[in-house]
């Protein structure tokens, strides 16, 4: 109890204490915020005018038009296929790259280049990567799959490597002491400690890929995004509303699937 009292009695420094430096930083941030608002031409009149246009757009979007359900279903199936294939390939590749990037399992000459590769995969937004792949391999689902594989590696491999670096090395040393091979060390000392976290990363990425598979199509990488972009170009707003509703249903399905997988392997 004495220890508790001594800890409770310690005076913690106030993180919001006022001094000249902190006040100067806040004034600098406030000044830059005002400058940015002015430089971008943001005003209440601009927002009010924009809200009026948004109201007109919503009027044209409802009721949604599902009459071209075959086109909608084709785009939905393609988005699902892109997301599932990209997630599977990305998860498998990330499993190995994450292991090779872990500093406590690999020497520096192995982990450093792998970490650089993972960082490179995480550098650009999926839309930018999709544009590069569309220019490289052409329009269609292949560009979307390659895009989401790169995005999956950038996310899962990084977090998986960090998870491995936090494991207890006692189990690793115990397995190594038996003369086990490297593969046995990974299977019986590393994976049992990180499998649940890897599963969480993988299910989250699957959910993310379902969303992104509908987005990369806007630049020609297949899926519902292409159908959505074409509908916008034709000012076919009631069909746009139908596409958006289907995308929302797809995301909800992904959320349900992620929760189901976590519950099974809990």
Automatic annotation (TrEMBL):
GO cellular component: plasma membrane
Residues in the signal sequence: none
Protein family per UniProt: Belongs to the binding-protein-dependent transport system permease family.
SUPFAM superfamilies to which the protein is assigned, alphabetical: MetI-like
Keywords noted in UniProt: Cell membrane, Membrane, Transmembrane, Transmembrane helix, Transport
PANTHER family per record: ABC TRANSPORT SYSTEM PERMEASE PROTEIN P69, PHOSPHONATES TRANSPORT SYSTEM PERMEASE PROTEIN
Record field: transmembrane: 21-44, 82-102, 114-133, 139-161, 173-195, 239-261
Domain of life from the UniProt record: Bacteria
GO MF entries: ABC-type phosphonate transporter activity
Matching CDD domains: TM_PBP2 (cd06261)
InterPro entries in the record: MetI-like, MetI-like_sf, PhnE/PtxC
Subcellular location: Cell membrane
Name this polypeptide is given: Phosphonate ABC transporter, permease protein PhnE
Pfam families per UniProt: BPD_transp_1
Main localization category: membrane
Organism: Marinobacterium aestuarii
Membrane topology: Multi-pass membrane protein
Residue ranges of every copy of the ABC transmembrane type-1 domain listed in the record: 76-258
């Amino acid at each position: 109890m004495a220890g508790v009292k001594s800890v409770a009695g310690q005076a913690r420094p106030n993180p919001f204490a006022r001094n000249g430096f902190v006040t100067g930083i806040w004034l600098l941030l406030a000044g830059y915020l005002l400058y940015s608002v002015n430089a971008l031409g943001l005003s209440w009149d601009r927002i009010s005018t924009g809200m009026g246009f948004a109201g007109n757009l919503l009027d044209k979007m409802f009721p949604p038009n599902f009459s071209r359900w075959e086109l909608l279903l084709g785009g939905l199936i393609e988005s699902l296929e892109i997301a599932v294939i990209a997630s599977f390939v990305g998860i498998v590749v990330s499993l190995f790259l994450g292991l090779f990037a872990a500093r406590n399992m690999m020497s520096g000459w192995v982990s450093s280049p792998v970490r650089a590769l993972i960082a490179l995969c995480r550098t650009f937004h999926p839309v930018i990567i999709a544009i590069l792949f569309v220019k490289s391999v052409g329009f269609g689902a292949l560009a979307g799959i390659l895009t989401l594989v790169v995005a999956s590696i950038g996310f899962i491999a990084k977090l998986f490597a960090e998870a491995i670096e936090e494991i207890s090395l006692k189990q690793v040393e115990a397995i190594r002491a038996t003369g086990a091979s490297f593969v046995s060390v990974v299977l019986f000392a590393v994976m049992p400690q990180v499998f649940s976290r890897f599963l969480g990363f993988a299910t989250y990425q699957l959910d993310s890929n379902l969303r992104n598979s509908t987005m990369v199509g806007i630049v020609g990488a297949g899926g519902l995004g292409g159908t959505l972009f074409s509908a916008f170009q034709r000012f076919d707003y009631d069909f746009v509303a139908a596409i958006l509703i289907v995308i929302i249903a797809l995301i909800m399905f992904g959320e349900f699937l992620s929760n189901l997988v976590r519950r099974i392997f809990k």
